[in-house]
């Protein structure tokens, strides 16, 4: 038992994001993973029990919940003595938008790509507007790369169908800067180590599972959403994205997602 | 005969470039058309007889020849009483570089294209260097479009193989500005009118032929070399490039190129 307990503590410490322990952001990851369905609620007690092992105090959780309510992400109701928290429609929509990319085990790189080029000067704004509403990667101040077919209305933009052939270091460096490369390799190593040292006889509680899943998803989210699914030529040679993804899902697979009812019943 | 003479005078007036009668530039066109071969020489007398009908005085021709010698385009020797002028190796090389494009009756638009994108800021210089040594079209300050395969060394540039899909008005306008569109339609109309009004029994002298050819080539050169052979999508709907080219060659075909010996023998 000592061994099992110390593995959980070690895994929590190892999987905690060294760069971001912002509590409101962890709560967003938690709801996205465990309670994204309409009607899914997490009790205040469960929330505290899932998050506290990360070294976060109940007071910090209350402050974060207050902020998330103010920003329209979360609503709270009372059920008897317990407070119950759930995502608003806005929160669910935000969460649903990134869910496919976070949980894609084997994303296919799109085969068709296009470039949009704005006129120097005033044209930048047309491009900015488009980049806000669709998923584009900036190649330069007035050039954006997008997957799939051209937008129906290119407005004042020059549009090319393209195949990337050469990507210099400055662009790879801009797309995958040092901190992102490090976040990727350190998550890969942490997930691998947690998987490999996990005692074979460990039966986690739903709350322990929720703690570990939240940590993994939170940290992976911050890696996977920062770099777009570009063709391999865009990534630096030491980019560990594929390995990191493999380790993340290998570990998550040992931690089947508990239902909200399961985590709430333990409080 | 009156009719024939007046047609020649009218054609000369009509074919003269309303935007550029710079004498040194006309002489460059003349040598490029009539005496581009190594060893080909044009006598001073022939030069005057070819150019004078354009309303250019012998003194202006002398000044232009002086400038062309100073710039390394032309050399002059004496042969008995006559001065003989010819292109230097530099002049021949400059001339040879543009000859294929000037005399191409039916240019094929290249099928493969590529875009090179420089980093904002310092990267512009890499692109500038490349654009000086190869034929590229600027799409923006840091984006250049080139025909054919990628350069072997793209240096610090992002490189895409591309197919153009949408070209907005601002780019068409930049590639074919109003003055170029007008130069194109006015040359088309002038060449067509000269062809259609030409008396059937007219037998031009080698010097008359040389005058008309020089005027046509000079004016066409300034249209054809200003716009690159881009795919049709890049041109404004009123771009008369194809029609202009057709009229230019229809008229040139009625004026077979005289040899240097032929034009020199008349002086």
Please write out the topology:
Two copies of one chain form a homodimer.
Chain A: H1 2-15, H2 23-34, E1 42-43, H3 44-51, H4 58-70, E2 74-79, E3 82-87, H5 89-102, E4 113-117, H6 124-133, E5 136-140, E6 143-147, E7 158-166, H7 169-175, H8 178-197, H9 206-224, H10 241-252, H11 260-264
Spell out the key features of this protein.
267 residues, alpha+beta, Arc Repressor Mutant, subunit A, 3-stranded antiparallel beta sheet, 11 helices, 14% strand, PaaX family transcriptional regulator (chains A, B), PaaX-like_N (chains A, B), PaaX_C (chains A, B)
Question: Can you tell me about this structure?
Answer:
2 copies of one chain form a homodimer. By secondary structure, chain A is α+β, with helices and mostly antiparallel strands. The first copy, chain A, folds into 2 domains: 2-106 and 174-264, Arc Repressor Mutant, subunit A (Orthogonal Bundle), CATH 1.10.10.10; 113-167. Chain A has 11 helices and 7 strands. In chain A, strands 5-6-4-7 form a 4-stranded antiparallel beta sheet, with helices on one face. Chain A has a 3-stranded antiparallel beta sheet with strand order 1-3-2. In chain A, helix 8 packs antiparallel against helix 9 (206-224). The radius of gyration of chain A is 21 Å and the shape is globular. The model of chain A has no long low-confidence stretch (mean pLDDT 91).
């Amino acid at each position: 038992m000592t061994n099992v307990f110390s593995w959980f503590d070690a895994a929590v410490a190892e999987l905690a994001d060294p760069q971001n322990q912002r509590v409101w952001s962890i709560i967003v990851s938690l709801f996205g993973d465990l309670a994204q369905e309409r009607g899914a609620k997490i009790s205040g007690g469960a929330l505290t029990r899932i998050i506290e092992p990360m070294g976060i105090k109940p007071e910090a959780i209350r402050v974060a919940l207050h902020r998330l309510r103010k920003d329209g992400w979360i609503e709270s109701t009372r059920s008897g003595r317990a407070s119950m928290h759930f995502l608003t429609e806005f929160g669910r929509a935000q969460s649903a938008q990134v869910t496919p990319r976070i949980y894609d085990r084997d994303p296919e790189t799109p085969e068709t790509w296009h470039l949009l080029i704005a006129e120097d000067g005033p044209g930048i704004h047309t491009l900015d507007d488009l980049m806000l509403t669709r998923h584009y990667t900036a190649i330069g101040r007035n050039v954006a790369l997008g997957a799939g077919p051209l937008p129906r209305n290119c407005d004042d933009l020059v549009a090319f169908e393209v195949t990337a052939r050469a990507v210099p270091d400055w662009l790879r460096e801009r797309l995958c800067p040092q901190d992102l490369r490090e976040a990727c390799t350190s998550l890969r190593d942490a997930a691998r180590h947690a998987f490999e040292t996990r005692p074979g006889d460990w039966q986690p509680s739903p709350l322990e599972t929720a703690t570990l899943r939240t940590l993994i998803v939170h940290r992976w989210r911050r890696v996977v959403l920062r770099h777009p699914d570009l063709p391999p030529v865009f990534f630096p040679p030491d980019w560990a994205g594929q390995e990191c993804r493999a380790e993340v899902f290998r570990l998550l697979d040992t931690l089947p997602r508990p239902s909200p009812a399961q985590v709430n019943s333990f409080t």
